[in-house]
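ligand=iron/sulfur cluster
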Amino acid sequence: MSSSIIYYIREFCRPEWLKKFFFAKTPLLEAPAHFRDYPQLTGNECTHELRCMMICPSPGAIEVLKMDDGTWAPVIYKGHCIRCGLCVEACPDNVLRSGDLLERNKYEKTYFLASYFLHVDDAKCMKCGNCAVACPINKEIDPRLGSSAASSNDDVIMRVKDGRLTFLHPEKCTGCKTCEKTCPNGAITVARVVEGVQDED
Amino acid sequence: MSIIQKLKNKVRSRSIHVSYVNVGSCNGCDIEILACLSPRYDLEQYGIYVHNNPREADILLITGALCEQWDDKLVSLWEKIPEPKAAITIGNCPVSGCVFNRRGSYVNPPVSKHIPVAASIPGCPPRPSEIVSTILSLAPEVFKDFEEKKR
Ligand code: SF4
Ligand code: SF4
Ligand code: SF4
Ligand code: SF4
């Protein structure tokens, strides 16, 4: 009995034990490679497609801003961003990276396909042409597109022709929803559809 | 620097008492605080101890987007903490309201407009190691030479 007490006291008096008991600190765990930290710039050029802003589920988390040197670049706001990594995956130019997400997508051959669908409710539309005039893509294709939106150019996304708003090249739409916002009647709607795809081969 | 101050610094560096309060979070951030207590992270080896009583605490950890009921209660809770004290907000909610900050919701972020916040740890939720390292880097700034600085 007494020998075991003495044994214990001796054990507790060992300097290594005391040192470990009072001063041992394990270093903090490091984030694993698959951890999606706040997205960071890879250095690729941003082509201002705004897919990151479109897919971001958190309000006010990401904004594509014009930098001092005239280039576009996404800016992440901490305190709003929930580190979901969707913007990293959605960007077609791999401007952002987060953890090993890009490498993993490359290895697994997964990517996001974005498509945009335009629809006009003819019952609500009053053929004012605001949407066709406001559309930035239309503006590029036909700079002379005027207030009536009666363009003679056949390459535009949409125009008012024969008293009806018609879509000519809906595949050129970049999903910015400018038309939706400018329509006074809420007649035109843009559906943004994102598909997750994996190549089989 | 007096000897007593040196002694206080020494003791305080290994005796950081935290209390946490949930002012309307989804519990995600609270679970991450809980994870800090688990053997995997083991908060106490760094000299951080968790209480549920603000009167015993030095650091208040705040999670959540601040529901309206907390408007006055958080302030009175903050006043109960003895000096020296500091508040750390955890997660996106106390900064921006995160998922709860939608039209028609009864939340009132940011927390920093109600009580002084010394640091905030963004993330939804932040990693336990981010929480521990923030507490460890903030504590000396608040507690070191507190009496000397006050004079
Ligand atoms: S990681 Fe998610 S929440 Fe953060 S900016 Fe990207 S899409 Fe938005
Ligand atoms: S969403 Fe943008 S690009 Fe597409 S049609 Fe509307 S304005 Fe044009
Ligand atoms: S802006 Fe609206 S109402 Fe005007 S043409 Fe376009 S869809 Fe029709
Ligand atoms: S920041 Fe995210 S995880 Fe933390 S309380 Fe808010 S919603 Fe929940």
